[in-house]
Amino acid sequence: MYSARLLDHFQNPRNVGELPPPAVTVEVSNPVCGDILRLSVEFRDGRVAEARYKTRGCTASIAAGSALTEWLIGRTPPEVAAIRSADIEDAVGGLGAESKHAAVLAVKAARAAARGTRERVWRPAAGVDARPT
Questions:
Q1: CB-hemisphere CA count at 13 Å for 130?
Q2: Domain range for 111
Q3: Residue 133 domain flag
Q4: Which CATH number characterizes residue 41's domain?
Q5: Three-state secondary-structure class, residue 10
Q6: Rounded to an integer, what distance in angstroms lies between the CA atom of residue 38 and that of residue 93?
């Protein structure tokens, strides 16, 4: 059973789409279930000014992407890099054991975006299927 907050993010997703350059855009996937999350983040004055996402995946992954974009706004790259799965789980009102992969996918995307901003060169995270777009 999904929480009311998760269902709200699923039924009324926030910040869907992509941002044009100079936004950092990353794509990560879960090779086990096949979910894919594409995240675009634009930093201005050292903080996330805008974030957009596209997800191909389950209900929980779509909701986690939506919640992630809201969580990101106003954060610095080090704050983004420090995101935890628990942050996303809290943002959607909790996840069952079968859906925790959605929070992990969101965290991988956020950390990849933070790395992309610091380095200005795309390098996929170790062990993560992530490609620049």
A1: 26
A2: 4-127
A3: no
A4: 3.90.1010.10
A5: helix
A6: 22
